[in-house]
């Protein structure tokens, strides 16, 4: 039997490479993102800054040298000194300041010895009472009550002699500690000793302020009275006779400064400084200044200052004193001396006149050079005041002259001169005056301060006029025709951008 022929025929189709449109689009987007990331990481970033109106107070902090009318009173004889007047208080003529005991003991020591004698007598009396065993119980109770009364009286005496810390005293101690903490510097340890002396003086006031009031005249030895009124100070530092014309920069070195607290000595020899009186309300503050501050103070007769010690402000008459090659500001006042009678150096702040305008960071400012073109050689653009047109004359290689109009940006106009971009012209180019054969050769340059305006997506240099500045910011005029306006955006750092750079 003949086998049946297989009629099925297998046909192979040509295979096509399949392309997924989604994968293709994702790949394109991925490549684009990678390119953008690489460009972002390798490019220089321009940080924007929005221009706003503001002001600078022109504040300057200084350490000033205080010069007062001071009289140092010397001890008339040797001995132990007991002070009665509180430092920094005003005292009249014939006021009692202190007393001197030639025997070498102060009133505090005598009071302490008296207390010890009273206590010893009381203990002896108590011992005798305890040894008496033959008296009746009623007599014993009466004696015990008497003993308790004596002990209570002794405790009361100790409390009155030790003194109490009032609210005013606590405030004074806290002020001394706060002033030291705010001005602490590891490089100037002298202030630690000054603070120690101030606190010890305040503590001494607690023990001596009532001594004179509770003592009779006969108990005081060699009383020292004032010859005239003044403010009491118990320290000397060698600056008592210094005048404004004698001040030098070396005097402001705190390392060489030393103040002696007289109350800590306890005793005095004949001729030693005993105390000091500030005899007048008129006093001066001297501070070294640079040429910039000299120019600011030249036209001023008075200034406002802030005392950093207590935050108060005061007005002072100002004058400039020149000693050799150094300028000093002399601030004269007829008030507030009682608050700072014991201070030789004061941290103050000069509050000069405020300047207002557009406030921008100093990092945004850059100096650029520009060509100067006289006004008679330009054609003004009525549609845009920031642009002018000039007729430029050039020469071909064959020596033939050609003239063509060129529009350029104006960055500033000073008197009858326009400042134009130095990159749009070549040195030696000529511009022709309209309807005339007169020519002007471009070669004179001048520099301008300005910032880069980035409002339009590319950097445009804009001239600014600085009217005030400090360490970080400056105030520029807001009425410049070719300058900035409020809410403009500028490059924060001028070193990171160039003119016409796309952002």
TrEMBL record:
Biased composition annotated in UniProt, kind: Polar residues: 154-163
Q: Reply yes or no: does the keyword Membrane apply.
A: yes
Would I find Cell wall biogenesis/degradation among this entry's keywords?
Answer: no
Q: Tell me the ranges covered by the RND related barrel-sandwich hybrid domain, including all copies.
A: 70-278
Matching InterPro entries:
BSH_RND-rel (IPR058709)
> Where do Low complexity bias regions lie?
111-145
Show the segment(s) annotated as Disordered. 103-163
Chain ranges passing through the membrane:
21-41
Q: Which domain of life is it from?
A: Bacteria
What keywords sit in the KW lines? Membrane, Transmembrane, Transmembrane helix
Kindly give the Pfam families that the UniProt entry links to this protein. BSH_RND_rel
Name of the protein described by the UniProt record: RND related barrel-sandwich hybrid domain-containing protein
What organism is the protein native to?
Faecalicatena fissicatena
């Amino acid at each position: 039997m003949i086998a049946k022929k297989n009629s099925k025929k297998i046909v192979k189709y040509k295979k096509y490479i399949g392309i997924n449109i989604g994968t293709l689009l994702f790949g394109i987007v991925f490549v684009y993102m990678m390119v953008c990331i690489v460009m972002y990481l390798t490019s220089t970033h321009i940080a924007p800054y929005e221009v706003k109106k503001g002001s600078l107070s022109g504040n300057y902090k200084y350490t000033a040298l205080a010069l007062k009318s001071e009289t140092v009173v010397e001890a008339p004889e040797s001995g132990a000194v007991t002070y009665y007047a509180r430092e920094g208080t005003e005292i009249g003529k014939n006021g009692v300041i202190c007393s001197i005991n030639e025997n070498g003991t102060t009133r505090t020591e005598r009071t302490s010895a008296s207390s010890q004698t009273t206590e010893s007598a009381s203990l002896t009396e108590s011992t005798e009472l305890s040894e008496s065993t033959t008296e009746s119980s009623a007599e014993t109770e009466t004696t015990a009550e008497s003993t308790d009364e004596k002990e209570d009286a002794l405790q009361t005496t100790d409390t009155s002699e030790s003194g109490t810390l009032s609210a005013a005293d606590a405030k004074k101690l806290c002020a001394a500690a706060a002033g030291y903490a705010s001005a602490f510097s590891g490089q100037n340890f002298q202030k630690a000793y000054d603070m120690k002396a101030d606190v010890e003086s305040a503590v001494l006031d607690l023990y001596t302020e009532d001594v004179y009031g509770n003592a009779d005249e006969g108990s005081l030895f060699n009383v020292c009275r004032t010859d005239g009124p003044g403010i009491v100070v118990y320290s000397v530092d060698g600056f008592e006779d210094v005048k404004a014309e004698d001040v030098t920069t070396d005097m402001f070195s705190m390392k060489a400064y030393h103040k002696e607290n007289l109350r800590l000595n306890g005793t005095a020899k004949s001729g030693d400084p005993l105390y000091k009186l500030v005899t007048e309300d008129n006093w001066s503050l001297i501070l070294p200044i640079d040429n910039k501050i000299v120019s600011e103070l030249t036209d001023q007769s008075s200034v406002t200052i802030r005392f950093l010690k207590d935050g108060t402000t005061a007005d002072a008459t100002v004058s400039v004193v020149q000693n050799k090659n150094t300028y000093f500001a002399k601030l004269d006042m007829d008030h507030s001396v009682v608050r700072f009678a014991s201070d030789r150096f004061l941290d103050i702040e000069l509050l000069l006149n405020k300047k207002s305008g557009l406030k921008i960071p100093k990092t945004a400012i850059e100096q650029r050079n520009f060509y100067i073109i006289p006004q008679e050689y330009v054609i003004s653009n009525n549609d845009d005041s920031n642009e002018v047109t000039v007729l430029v004359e050039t020469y071909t290689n064959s020596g033939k002259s050609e003239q063509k109009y060129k529009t350029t940006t104006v960055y500033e106009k000073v008197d009858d001169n326009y400042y134009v971009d130095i990159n749009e012209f070549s040195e030696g180019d000529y511009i022709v005056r309209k309807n005339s054969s007169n020519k002007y050769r471009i070669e004179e340059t001048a520099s301008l301060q300005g910032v880069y305006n980035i409002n339009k997506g590319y950097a445009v240099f804009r001239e600014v006029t600085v009217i005030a500045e400090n360490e970080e910011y400056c105030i520029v005029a807001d009425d410049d025709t070719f300058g900035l306006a409020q809410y403009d955006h500028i490059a924060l750092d001028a070193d990171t951008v160039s003119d016409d750079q796309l952002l």
